[in-house]
Design brief:
The chain is α/β, with parallel strands linked by helices. It is built from seven helices and seven strands.
């Protein structure tokens, strides 16, 4: 009996440690105010509405992040092979100047937004960011097709952008 209880306890413990996979953005994430490259403020919900009807590839990154920089060539390859997608780059940089310099340095082509609250802020917590880069794919209707990929070579990411 003790063994059965131990197995149940371990199973329940593991279940509670699993990250929730979202199919919709939480309202707190949608209300997050981000900054455009021109210095204007816009809510994430309005960004998504702007591109409604398109499949959106989201790259959550920062110019100080070595893994993010390492993934850029593969993101560019994905852009080359899938020009029909909308590419959103959401920066978690600590400074706006670093964000803008990173866009120029790495020649990132797409739509760019700065997340002032950073990785540990309301947006990051709402979507469970614990590592960057973070790649997401959003369906034309605004639902989340792929909630999380941390490398550009993950099979789930490649499958989500092909469909």
């Amino acid at each position: 009996m003790k063994n059965i209880l131990l197995v149940i306890f371990i199973f329940l413990s593991l279940q509670s440690c699993e990250k929730e996979i979202l199919s919709e953005f939480p309202s707190v994430a949608l209300q997050e105010k981000m900054q455009t490259i021109d210095g204007e403020t816009i809510e994430f919900e309005k960004i998504l509405k702007k591109y409604k009807g398109n499949t959106i590839f989201i790259d959550i990154w920062a110019s100080w992040c070595p893994d993010c920089i390492e993934g850029i060539p593969k993101v560019k390859e994905i852009q080359k092979n899938h020009p029909e997608l909308t590419y959103l780059f959401l920066s978690l940089d600590r400074k706006i100047t670093s964000w803008k310099a990173g866009i120029q340095k790495y020649k990132l082509i797409g739509e760019h937004y700065y997340v002032p609250s950073g990785m540990k802020g309301t947006f990051g917590k709402a979507i469970g960011i614990n590592w960057i880069p973070r790649y997401m794919v959003v369906n034309p209707d605004g639902s989340i097709k792929l909630f999380e990929a941390t490398t550009t070579t993950e099979k789930s990411l490649l499958e989500a952008i092909k469909q």
